[in-house]
Amino acid sequence: MVPIIADDAILYPAATLRVRFRKTGALQYISHLDLVRTFEKVLVRAGLPLWYSEGFNPHPRFSFSTPMSIGLESLYELMDVKIEKKVNCEAVKEALNRNLTAECVVEEVYYPDTKFTDISLASYEIVLQTAGADEALAEKCGAALRGSPVTVLKRTKSGEKETDISPMIIKSEASFAEGKILLAVTLTVDNEKFLNPEYIVTYLKETLGVLSGSPLEEAYSILRTGLYGKSGELFR
Amino acid sequence: MNQKLLSGILKSVSKPGRYTGGEFNSIIKDKSKVDVRFAFCFPDTYEIGMSNLGVRILYEALNQKENVWCERVYAPWVDMDEKMQEYGIPLSAHESGDAVKDFDIVAFTLQYEMCYTTALHMLKLAGLPLLAKDRGEDAPVILGGGPCAYNPEPVADFFDIFSIGEGEEALPELCALYAEMKKSGRYTKSAFLREAAKLEGFYVPSLYSVSYREDGTIEAYTPLYEDVPKTVRKRIIKDLDEAVYPEKLVMPYIETVHDRVVLEVNRGCIRGCRFCQAGMVYRPIREKSPEKLCKLAKCLYENSGYQEISLISLSISDYSRIAELTDLLLEWTDERHVSLSLPSLRIDSFSEELMKKVSSIRTGGITFAPEAGTQRLRDAINKNVTEEDLMQAVGIAFGAGKNNVKLYFMNGLPTEEVEDVVAIADLAKKVVHRFYQTPNRNKARPVSVTVSVSCFVPKPFTPFQWVGQDTLASLKEKQEALRLAIQDKKIRYNWHDAEVSHIEAVFARGDRRLSAALLLAAEENMMFDAWDEFFSFEKWLDVFARAGIDPAFYANRTFGLDECLPWDIIDCGVSKSYLKREYERAYRHETTPNCAEHCNGCGANKLGGKTKWCR
Hints:
The structure holds two protein chains of two kinds. The radius of gyration of chain A is 20 Å and the shape is elongated. Chain A has two domains: 5-116, Alpha-Beta Plaits; 119-228, Alpha-Beta Plaits, CATH 3.30.70. Chain A is α+β, with helices and mostly antiparallel strands. Chain A is 20% helix and 36% strand. In chain B, the strands form six sheets. Chain B has a six-stranded mixed β-sheet, with helices on one face. Chain B has a four-stranded parallel β-sheet with strand order 15-16-17-18. Chain B is of the alpha/beta class. Chain B contains 20 helices and 19 strands. The A-B interface holds A 25-27, 29-31, 33-35, 37-38, 40-45, 52, 57-58, 70-71, 99-101, 103, 211, 214-216, 218-221 and B 1-2, 6-12, 15-17, 19-24, 83, 87, 251, 253-255, 259, 302-307, 337, 361-362.
């Protein structure tokens, strides 16, 4: 087995390692903060040469690319972690996966040359399993999201506010398959213009009355499929 | 993952991560290949249940058996509970998502009397009749255990069987009996219970009849058959180094109450405080070796990634090899940024050296428990600490840079007078004063002393088991007297709700007749009574009144020394004659030396066990 640590020399300054992973199933019900806590333990278990902050209460340093709200599954999440020794990326990937369940899988580990602040867009697949789903309703959903304004009650730091989110919806396509409505949307995720995809579902609930029935029969899912830079290139 | 919960419902409740399962290290088995499906229910929330060491140990002990699959079940929070009732979703197990009612054995750990309503509510949510006699052959065997099983009588009508004492060996034995009887075709529920009653440490309440005297006290427990034991002796693990202990922990995705490695260093306590049930029922005192503990700690750290290791014990500083253990641990914990925490530090054994080791990385508050305000009362309860001990301990803490100290007390203790309670204020004042006398104190922040006072609840198998609890009026009067006596702004005063303690006392010393009240409580959908926001004293008074029960009969009445007690059916090792001796010494304000100094002949040595002190 290839060892995790490639070189025992301590790095100054600490290096940043990027971990790309997906989280699905039960993991969608974990809050962002709880995912942070989970990864802190996973990184220790996996035996990474973590860099610890100086001071009274030393902690490993790591950060996630974009906030993940409860109810969001994702195929494309990024985490940067500070390490104090050079590592073999493939060995790190394997060690992390040994310490995760099948619902959270690391796809790639590498030394990045970009910064999370350059992430601008995220793509999502939203599936609505709702009464009345057909081609026509799918088309209505697509059109509704392409229209302007798209007004929702948005939570901000200063309370809830009626907001037109249409400038944050970059792309939206709707289709109908196997009794379900599929939406492919691209939303802005910049710091100032982060749009939680839940608002898309909320908007369609309020304007078109989708998902108004029993939770025993109706459901929706949101899957993040990619992160992109300003000019629409896949962010790595 | 528990796939049977619907996403629409999960998305509409708070902290859905409580319900989904799928945790790292949770144990999944092929259900077609196991003989016994065992549901281990914790009658409180996931966050609390996941932190419980007993559950962690028994989950491991049961799942080590190839033919047993033990799964976890927690009480859904009120929002989820509402949805489950609305949509008819039955209570299910965490690992498989299968309905609890389809399991073979459904066990409840009863940690605290105030969880009884939650346990019954869980049975209801599972779709099972509450009373054991109403459940048919197809219903699972309902098993109770945990500290409250030392007096199982208030819930005896709801359970088929109780496990008394330590369960690491007993529960797998019970499962083996179940599997064998199912395989051989001998199984009927009553045949199984009759057989199980012959195993050591199992109490089957339906195999005993209880008769009462005219004054309402118990006359006798009578076994219904010859082969049913007259008393049920608790089980213990003889050698703790050989006992099952998990090397891997189920890792919660969400934050739980004790999110850390927990190392049990010993069982039992040498002290013999007269109010303390744990100090009596976990006897004889047994220890793990530092070598074994250190090996376990490293293993658990590597398999969990937790950066905090908590050593647990009823009194950690009484662990005879504490210095060796902390030295061994510090050899590797420091460099890995792993911190050690030691709860329950005794005042008289708190040393500078220990403090240095504990605060090597992380620091928190420090708590001491003098329990009572005057030496006379501390002697009556056999606490065996002095004011000097306390001043020395807080002096060390202040000298090491601490400026907040928490002090635990009880009020309503037997022989207590208002003066004893008011003396707590003086003691706290002296602690504040001690801070200013400490030369190298932390001058950056002001000193803060927190005084927390709970109400004494008489518990079975303690020298104070016979003593009636102070009346509510008297408890409240004493709480108020102390509030008025605390003038200093540097002293914060918290007190425990006397009404909760009153209900707790009813169930702690209750008998089978209380099931009538619990049934009514279940009808009223009462649950989470351990949570302040759900506890309703009025509702309790109402169900007691409707059930024809006088709560004072159980809580406030001083029981006769020769009275048949509801828990006389259980033998916890410690003898009644020893408890009587201690009871009488209390009223003479006489202390009793601890087990390390002198064997007082409590009787627990008859249980055997690898122990340093028992003669």
